[in-house]
Amino acid sequence: xxNYIKHMDTSLIPIKVPIIISSTKVYINxxxxxxxxxYATAIKHITRKVFLKKYILISKSKKLFLRGSIRKxxxxxxxIYKNGDKIEGKIxxxxxxxxxxxxxxxxxxxNPEIQKRSLSTLVTISKSGTKKxxxxxxxxxxxxxxxxxxxxxxxxxxxxxxxxxxxxxxPNIHIFKTITQQTTICLTIRLIxxxxxxxxxxxxx
Length: 205
Known about the structure:
Pfam family, one: DUF7852
Structural class: mainly beta
InterPro entries: DUF7852 (IPR057174)
Number of helices: 0
Protein name: DUF7852 domain-containing protein
Helix content: under 10%
Mean pLDDT: 83
């Protein structure tokens, strides 16, 4: 029967892995006006999705600048007058993109790695007395920081702007074409950067 001996090497191995350097909630307030393609009797449903177009982290001041847009797909009912006093609805859809930008403070779970530069000047004097300046520069390469959306929650108020009766003999049915939307978005975001960590080197003999 063979004997198996387990051996642990306590030396460390460097590896690069994605590290969550910050996780925070961002509140964004946006107001926009929408003109539908036709008159509507009701808004049936609105789906929303957030897209980040640009993000910049000022690491020393812990400021995160965000720019993006909200895609809104608005489903509404268009009235169709048929058969005397009978009114039917036709479902229609309009998609819009609402831009936003904001700045927020962030706290670090792990400090981000930032690029460091150093400049040095060397002055040499030749036998003839001529001075020469030699400039040198060095810097370290760091991985970029990525921003991802973990979760997005919306609270929205839709205000009908141009309400009017659909037909004179149906005072209870009103139509509109323009709405003002007041939206509050709560984004949960993460900042991620590939960083070097050290793990134990464990081998089996």
